[in-house]
Amino acid sequence: MAVRIGMIGPGGMGQAHLDRIRTVIAGGELVGVSDIAADNVKTVSEKYGVRGFDSSAELIGSPDVDAVMICSYGPAHAEDVIACIEAGKPVFCEKPLTPDAESALRIMEAEQKAGRRLVTVGFMRRFDRSYQEMKAVLDSGEVGETLIIHNRHRNPTVPERYTWDMAINDTGIHEIDTMRWLTGEEIVSVRVDKPKKTSYRFEHLQDPLILIMETSSGIWIDDEIFVNDQHSYDIQCEAVAELGTIRLSDQQVIERTGKIGRHHVLTMDHNERFGAAFVTEVQQWISAVAAGEHAGSTSWDGYAAACVCDAGVRALQSDGWVPVEMIDKPDFYA
Ligand code: ISE
To answer: What is the reported pTM?
Structure first.
């Protein structure tokens, strides 16, 4: 029997998941949606031919819903995730689990009280083949110790409602999680460098910026976050190790040759660039729910990333290094 899924906050990201669940992902079936925007509930429930719930609480409590996907705005996640835990329902929560560490801590407490891992955080890059190959080489020891990792995270544009802290807790959080996973280390301190700002978008943003992170063994990681580059969704990563470097190759799907020469065609958004990773991630989650198991990133990963984000947001407003404050990892997440 298919896992009956209720989705909270089916915006662009949520509907991309729903389209994949309907077409290429097996074992899941959408049964209902809820949203703080009533008109979106109407539009999406009609589009997918499913029930529109009046509230997230009603969706979570429904006996027709086996598992919940939360794709709403980050600050709205915590209460719904905790309600899912209290209802004993597995929940896939899009990143960020929460934009701040304090609410992620409350989620971990609720989950430990429930006594089983119910929360999966949507950190999709862990499922991307090129990052996985990079990790396999680093883990093999073939290139020695990792010393530095350079990242670039570029978006064509962001909307005006994108606030300056989102550069860290909505965009940079991808590298924060991926770097924890890639190195197997926690990030202990962060700094934000602020270069000249682009004139091509909103004055209220520090764009681009460079997030610098240091891991527990001293690996130095930089992340250029540039969310209005005007031309592409361009994700780059290069690890510099003692005996060699490894970098993601250009993520082109095709290469074009014409009057301007030969060039790679770059992706324009995360669904295009990480489409395959999203499929693998959600497929694993649905298969795990059907088997009564847990898959993917845990609340601990969501919490650890939120701790780094908290320090990063503080670093945005200061000039020096900011230490990352984090509790010890509970045995429950070992
Ligand atoms: C967005 O929420 C994402 O997850 C994208 O991957 C990222 O590139 C973008 O900056 C975020 O706002």
So the answer is: 0.97
